[in-house]
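U., I forgot to send this yesterday:
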Amino acid sequence: MLNYKLMEFFDGEPEIVPDIAIKEEPDPHYIGHRKRVKERFVTSGAANFSDYELLELMLFSSIPRKDVKPLAKKLLENFNSITDLINIDKERLLSISGTNENLYINFAIVRELINRALKQKIINKNIIASWGSLIDYLKVNMGNMRLEQFRVLFLNKKNILIADEVLSQGTIDQAAVYPREIIKRALFNEASNIILVHNHPSGSPDPSKADIDMTNIIVDMCKTINIIVHDHVIISNNKYFSFKSNMLL
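Result:
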């Protein structure tokens, strides 16, 4: 509909003319949709949302002026799980049409909040007695890494976590391990016990012969300074392998 307004010409005679410039345009359809989705989230709660709807809600703040429902569905179709999606690296995410750096930042924030929440469950607690919580923390922290990483959990006499340190990060199928550096860090942290951890980006947590041989070397070196290696855990996606549970320690 055209709007009309009065215009007064120099001769003082008013005239009603159509004002094309202030023609009202309807809001894009996605604006009303976003409002309805947000209202339903507030009234119904997250539990009543499907995976793509929750992801779509997150995309609202990352991509402000666009219908993001197709992108939400596309992202879920391209990944095996929500965990894989949240753990995506920046380069891979930005290679997907429609994504942007804001979305990567939001995913990184969610990932870090989850990591911290899980870590709180093992801080100041007996790690051995909280084994399930430890494995959950390690799976989220390392399970979807594209490069191999080696870390050590340093514990005191009561098996309370003193430090969680990444000692090396390598390629897709190997990370350098230096037993002397482990000993050095154990002494620095005044640790009585340690747990070795590394990941396998390949998808299989089963240890290689090199994994087994290196573990034995570390165990023998730790014995010389009365430090106990409780376990060596290998993480891969949502699976893990425990040397101790499989009688390799």
